[in-house]
């Protein structure tokens, strides 16, 4: 389980998130949604110990993300919305490089097994010999996901995993996330309503750095009086709701 308790994070004079608290249950999919600039990426990175809250506590499976960041990084993996690669590497060369860093000191056989397992899940083995610089955006997203899965993390934290994917690729990504959530905690940000409707058992709405809702899709629709998730989201982030909050 992911738990945030009264978390605040500032960047200089700007407050990115303010006194937020929520949880994301284990072995399920929780979506963090909000308009651009709401603070979603700030939260995701705090969960992965990529930076730390100025106040409050982030717990991941009971581990304090700030006080025990090394242990937390071993159990989490982060997929950025914009992943950086070495375009001159082949897909297989890149994954070998990543595995060597992750499993320094282990034998090559174990590293190859990890690569094979992650690659099969994402289907990236089909383009092992291609240079990364020649891959389409969809294949690069698959490669980014494969890199996350190399360490077989307990918690997957994904920033807009289906960003820029075509309908077929998006469907494949949803199917993979659904499968992984059977034995992993998946926490991701998205702007895509279809992803939320299909995958998520819980939704956390972040607006201007504050949590304004957490619960199920049905609960959000009941709260706003709307029949669809899209209308509910637009409603709760409107000026009318801002005034009520």
The coarse silhouette is globular
Our Rg estimate from Cα atoms comes to 18 Å
Strand proportion? 15-25%
One letter per element, helices H and strands E, the order comes to EEEHEEHEHHHEHEHEEHHH
Return the average pLDDT rounded to an integer: 91
User: Low-confidence parts lasting 5 or more residues at pLDDT below 50?
Assistant: none
Cα distance spanning the termini: 27 Å
Describe the sheet with the most strands.
6 strands, mixed
Structural class: alpha/beta
The number of helical runs is 10
Q: Which strand order spans the largest sheet, edge to edge or round the barrel?
A: 6-7-8-3-9-10
Characterize the structure shown.
The protein has 245 residues and is α/β, with parallel strands linked by helices. Helix content is 40%, strand content 24%. It has 10 helices and 10 strands. Strands 6-7-8-3-9-10 form a 6-stranded mixed β-sheet, with helices on both faces. The protein has a 4-stranded antiparallel β-sheet with strand order 2-1-4-5, with helices on one face. α4 packs across α5. The longest helix is centred in the middle third of the chain and has 15 residues, at 108-122. The protein is globular. The chain starts with a strand and ends with a helix. The mean pLDDT is 91.
Task: List the main descriptive attributes of the protein structure presented here.
single chain, alpha/beta, four-stranded antiparallel sheet, 245 residues, six-stranded mixed sheet, 10 strands
């Amino acid at each position: 389980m992911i738990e945030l308790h009264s978390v605040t994070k500032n960047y200089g004079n700007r407050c990115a998130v303010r006194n937020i608290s929520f949880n994301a249950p284990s072995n399920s999919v929780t979506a963090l949604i909000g308009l651009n600039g709401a603070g979603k990426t700030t939260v995701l990175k705090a969960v992965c110990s990529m930076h730390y809250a100025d106040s409050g506590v982030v717990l991941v499976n009971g581990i304090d993300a700030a006080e025990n960041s090394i242990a937390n990084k071993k159990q989490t993996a982060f997929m950025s919305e914009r992943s950086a690669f070495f375009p001159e590497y082949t897909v297989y060369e890149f994954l070998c490089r990543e595995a060597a860093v992750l499993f320094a000191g282990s034998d090559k056989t174990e590293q190859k097994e990890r690569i094979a397992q992650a690659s099969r899940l994402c289907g990236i083995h089909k383009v092992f010999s291609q240079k990364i610089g020649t891959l389409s955006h969809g294949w690069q997203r698959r490669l980014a996901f494969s890199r996350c899965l190399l360490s077989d993390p307990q918690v997957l934290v994904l920033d807009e995993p289906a960003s820029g994917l075509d309908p077929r690729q998006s469907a494949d990504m949803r199917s993979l996330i659904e499968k992984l959530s059977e034995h992993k905690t998946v926490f991701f940000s998205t702007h895509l309503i279809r992803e939320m409707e299909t995958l998520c058992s819980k939704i956390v709405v972040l607006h201007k750095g504050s949590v304004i809702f957490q619960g199920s899709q049905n609960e959000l629709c009941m709260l706003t009086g709307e029949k669809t998730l899209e209308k509910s989201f637009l409603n709760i982030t409107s000026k009318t709701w801002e005034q009520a909050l």
